[in-house]
Amino acid sequence: MHPANSVIFFTVFSGAGFGLLFLLGFATMADENASFLFLFVHFGIAFAMAVAGLISSTFHLGHPERAWRALTQWRSSWLSREGVLAILTLLCGGAYALLWMFFFNPIAPLGWLTAVLALLTVWATGMIYAQIKAVRLWYRLLTPVCYLLFSLAGGMLLFLMLHAAFFGEAGPFLSSVAMVMLLIAWAAKWWWWRTRGDAPLSTPGTATGLGAIGKTRLLEAPHTSDNYLMKEMGFQIGRKHADKLRLLAIGLGGVAPVVLILMARAFGGDVVWLLLAVIVHLLGMLAERWLFFAEAKHAVMAFYR
Amino acid sequence: MTSLPQSTDRKLGLVIDLDICVGCHACVVACKEWNTGGYGAPLSDQDAYGDEPVGSWLNRVHTFEVTPRAEPGAKAVAPARVVHFPKSCLHCEDAPCVTVCPTGASFKRSDDGIVLVNEDWCIGCGLCAWACPYGAREMDGAEKVMKKCTLCVDRIYNENIPEEDRVPSCVRTCPAKARHFGDLADPDSDVSQMVAERGGYDLMPEQGTKPVNKYLPPRPKQDDLAEPINLAALAEPKATGFLGWLDDALTRIG
Ligand code: SF4
Ligand code: SF4
Fold this sequence. Notes:
Chain A is an all-alpha fold. Chain A contains eleven helices and one strand, in the order ααααααααβααα. Chain A has one domain (5-303): Formate dehydrogenase/DMSO reductase domain (Formate dehydrogenase/DMSO reductase fold, Up-down Bundle). The longest helix of chain A is centred in the last third of the chain and has 29 residues, at 239-267. Chain A is globular. Chain B has a single domain (12-229), classed as Alpha-Beta Plaits (2-Layer Sandwich), CATH 3.30.70.20. In chain B, strands 10-1-11 form a three-stranded mixed β-sheet. Chain B has a two-stranded antiparallel ribbon with strand order 2-3. In chain B, a hairpin with a 6-residue loop joins strand 6 and strand 7 (115-117). The longest helix of chain B has 13 residues, at 241-253. Chain B is elongated and about 85 Å long. The mean pLDDT of chain B is 92. The complex binds iron/sulfur cluster (SF4) (2 copies).
């Protein structure tokens, strides 16, 4: 499948933003008297990332001016649900943040609701892909689970970095939580890679029905140059490159942030290490997301083999 | 509304006879011609005369080679054969392209089962094209909206055209009569009869889309011949009359 930059950026940045928002939903329990600056920076970053991603996601639309129509079909469409949930999360989270910041009135249940909505939004993002049976690699419950775990791990890493920025150090507890969350997310992703079915669900034989007669192969394609289908669904990357990118994704997205967190614990000067950890993690996630699309094969290609 | 109807009163669709199709692509061109002036935005081409032409087409013909499996006990393996394979939207009963659509632009009609795109609502997100396992939807490069086979909805009910033309353009055009149009929900319709007689089948049944369009398999060839036919001998005519007498006489002398 064609890896569109706008969608890759959207899923990675909105994912991390909503992950941070999820954690902030419980912030009233930690410190009801958090300073204005603390709240402003935390909520600001969470909203900025989520909103930047959502805006970027409209760049790949043919008619972004009609994007509001995508909010209408939440009964049947995961893409629509995702849009509706994202807006509800931002509204609910916005009210929660503003009441707390400007009226010193942290409403805990509003925070919890924000947290739940943030999780549901990310789940819906994953389901957009997991619902597509024609792409066998994606068509699994594990797909949204991975989206969710990466979103939480990314949010936690951001939270850790901001904590270090405000309080000078990240602390052993939060550091350990962040490392465990990274570990769980990458373990799930590793499992997602391990359990991929390599045999395609549809073959030239089932696609044409001629398999009942014998071995079927394409003799002449219906068109002489690429068309929309080949560009969108025919995008494929060699196994060799995929292996390299997978290592890069795990290295930058998982191993490097853990090492940097450990460095922060060992040498102090936490915020610098952790800022670096956030940056390399996001880079690794971009590689992971690129691969998510580039590796996936679509059933229609059975008509071209 | 991108929820699918529980059931449709009729199931209008195509039956395509793979035994008959000669791969001339006339239906492909007729489809492009009609639909570029019919329902919705024209079907555009980009770089039409350049090095990498692309364009939106709603019907395309692939050509396959099938090598029959060796039957146990058969004297010889049948030779490979060529099958021309037209492909367009199958107007699936469980159309995944419809339910994924976030805007309601994609819908399936409950009266005749035709799957359509309302181009004024389509945001061009492309998700429906991803959801269709058959590659039956293409985004138009100029209009940036999703295009797909409409089953010539603007012909089949069109009272301004002669009655024999009230079938999809591809069906009307096919010089070999490999394409048939009708109601597949009615067991007595010509198309349903054809499907029953010839063992018409679904494409990619494993995708669970329940396509309405059916394909008729190529009829088995006389592939149990012990020896390949001597085509050269067939080309030499047996002479009769005066020429026959001459032929015999010369053969006897020679
Ligand atoms: S063939 Fe594809 S576009 Fe047509 S109804 Fe089925 S899934 Fe939808
Ligand atoms: S491209 Fe148009 S018709 Fe297809 S899913 Fe998106 S909005 Fe619906």
